[in-house]
Design a protein that fits this description.
Elements (H helix, E strand, L loop, with lengths): L22 H22 L7 H15 L16 H13 L3 H25 L4 H12 L3 H8 L5 H19 L6 H18 L4 H19 L2 H13 L1 H10 L3 H8 L8 H16 L14 H25 L39 H25 L2 H4 L1 H4 L10 H4 L1 H9 L3 H26 L1 H21 L3 E4 L1 H10 L5 E4 L12 H8 L5 E5 L3 H7 L9 E6 L2 E6 L2
Parallel strand pairs: 1-2, 1-3
Antiparallel strand pairs: 3-5, 4-5
Helix pairs in contact: 1-4, 1-5, 2-3, 2-22, 3-4, 4-5, 4-7, 7-8, 7-9, 7-15, 8-10, 8-11, 9-15, 13-14, 13-15, 14-15, 19-20
Length: 563
């Protein structure tokens, strides 16, 4: 009996192949938008609080916008490049002095970081749900985290997107992507050079990804790719190199001196500040200004995860690095067919890497993960070795901000345990992930609760600026944390010279301000209410000529010489 074949009617739709699940990608997009929106809401509410260091970068941006000055370094020092000032200068040229305009480029850098970290997690071999977890964790923002990401105080907002970008470029170059290879080499070199100028905190990641490139692409680097990479690196670091040649400065020595290496801090203090407080503070698990005892659990989990992540990457890398053993006795095989004649690439285009020299993607993923883990360990080790970890652990935890670059590699063991593990390992991994997100969420909520007070303080500062303008005051003396913030907020209508609590000259990052203030016999004084400087100035109040009158603004006291 002949079987009848059922024919589809003409025009009927063929069954489609099921598409890859898009729900995790959609959720990641929503979570990323929420993370950016949360930070934008903080900026609109004047949080995180502004300070004079950030205002110093703002003054550099104002000077660039006006064509008045083009600084290489953060004013008053020979390290920390002014990339943030150059990014903000076009906005300040339109808006004038504005903390919001100064911070919009840092918000854009954070959004870029989330986009790149999703891409990096997927390129490393992580599934979309794991990438969603990474984006969700990084969308949260404790007090220390949002300060690192949003305050344009020099160096920190650029580090994370740059580090993730280097890792992505390393993956692309080592897996042999044939398109735009020379531009990718140039991008790796340019980002590395810029970060060497801006802040050498990213150096461990530059060295780690560079080592991966040398290990698997040294033949390519021996040709045009190496020339392009070195040229781009020199271009990115050009401001630093030219300034060093011109003035004989060594920025790396200046960085080491600034880390407090010559200050008194015992190893007990360094180990406690660096290993106990450092990881929870630096990765967003603590409340504003302190870590509760229960929030310190991450100090125990972090080194364990770091070791497991390094071991996992090393074990995945070893089979690719060692030759495969012979499978058995030799067999007679027919000779291979003659390969087709290769077609030469078009003139002027870089040749694609040889397939025989291209490592498998799993090996490249393991190598990049290992580079990220080693980079994170080096960042933490350098921080522990500095006296800053012992003397000012809460504020100095900002030096650990680039630990976030290694987040996909650091949490990789938890991914493996939740996907392939059973019993106790899987339960432990789920518990750690829940604690991770829960602790970061609690710290984020604690940061949100400080916003009303921060907004009120910013309002008081705006009232102070307006009062000085009404009084016609153009030159004042004040403490370090008042001076440049006041000068930036007024658009340099008020120039300020720094004094200490005993009215002695302090550290002026821009010496021209002191010269202008010293030349004005009618220069006033500004001090926060209740501060030691205000108490000292209150002793000079009186009715006689040359003594001081006081004008009180909410939260501030303005002292003017009696004429």
């Amino acid at each position: 009996m002949t079987a009848r074949v059922r024919q589809e009617p003409r025009g009927a739709a063929r069954p489609r192949t099921p598409r890859r699940p898009r729900l995790p990608a959609l959720l990641a997009l929503l979570v990323g938008v929420a993370g950016v929106g949360y930070r934008l809401a903080l900026l609109l509410a004047d949080a995180p609080p502004a300070n004079s260091d950030e205002a110093t970068m703002g003054l550099a941006a104002l000077h660039i916008a006006r064509g008045q000055d083009f600084p290489v370094w953060f004013y008053g020092q020979a390290y920390m490049g002014t990339l943030e000032a150059y990014l903000a200068a076009p906005l300040l040229a339109l808006t004038g002095p504005s903390v919001l305009a100064l911070r919009l480029p840092t918000l854009a850098l954070y959004a870029l970081f989330l986009l790149l970290v999703w891409r990096l997690t997927r390129r490393l071999g992580g599934d979309r749900w794991f990438a969603l977890l990474i984006v969700g964790f990084l969308a949260l923002g404790s007090d220390r985290i949002v300060k690192n990401q949003l305050i344009a105080g020099g160096g920190y907002p650029e580090l994370n997107p740059a580090g993730v970008g280097l890792a992505l470029l390393t993956l692309d170059l080592c897996t042999g992507r044939p398109d735009a290879r020379l531009p990718r080499w140039a991008a790796w070199g340019l980002i590395s050079g810029l970060m060497l100028w801006v802040d050498p905190l990213l150096l461990p990641y530059i060295a780690g990804t560079g080592a991966v490139l040398v290990a698997w692409r040294r033949r390519e680097l021996a040709g045009r790719a190496g020339i392009v990479t070195v040229a781009a690196l020199l271009l990115g670091a050009a401001p630093m190199l030219l300034d060093s040649l011109r003035h004989g400065r060594d920025p790396f020595t200046a960085v080491l001196a600034a880390s407090g290496g010559d200050a008194a801090a015992g190893w007990g203090e360094r180990l406690h500040g660096g290993l106990v407080l450092g990881p929870p503070l630096g990765m967003g698990f603590c409340s504003p200004g302190h870590c509760a005892t229960w929030q310190l659990w991450w100090a125990l989990a972090f080194p364990v995860l770091l070791a497991l992540a390094g071991l996992s990457a090393w074990r995945a890398l070893r089979p690719a690095a060692s030759p495969a053993p012979p499978a058995g006795p030799p067999m007679s095989v027919p000779p291979p067919a003659r390969p087709p004649r290769s077609v030469p690439p078009p003139a002027g285009s870089p040749a694609a890497p040889s397939p025989s020299a291209t490592p498998p993607p799993s090996a490249v993923s393991a190598a990049v993960r290992l580079a990220l883990v080693v980079g994170a360990a080096a960042v933490l080790g350098a921080y522990v070795a500095s006296s800053a970890a012992g003397r000012t652990p809460v504020e100095s935890a900002r030096y650990l901000s680039c630990l976030a670059v290694a987040t996909p590699a650091l949490l990789w063991p938890l991914r493996a345990a939740t996907r392939g593990g059973r019993g106790v390992p899987r339960i432990a991994a789920v518990a750690v992930l829940a604690a991770l997100l829960g602790t970061a969420a609690v710290a984020t909520a604690a940061a949100v609760r400080t916003v009303p007070a921060t907004h009120a303080e910013a309002d008081r500062h705006r009232t102070l600026v307006a009062t000085l303008d009404e009084l016609g005051v153009r030159h004042v003396r004040a403490g370090y944390w008042t001076c440049n913030r006041l000068t930036f907020a007024s658009g340099e209508d008020v120039l300020c010279a720094v004094v200490d609590d005993e009215l002695r000259p302090g550290f002026d990052r821009y010496p021209a301000y002191r010269r202008a203030v010293d030349a004005d016999p009618g220069a006033g004084w500004v001090a926060p209410v209740g501060s030691p400087l205000a108490v000292r100035l209150d002793q000079r109040l009186g009715p006689d000529r040359g003594e001081l009158d006081v004008v009180t603004v909410e939260g501030w006291r303005v002292y003017l010489p009696r004429r």
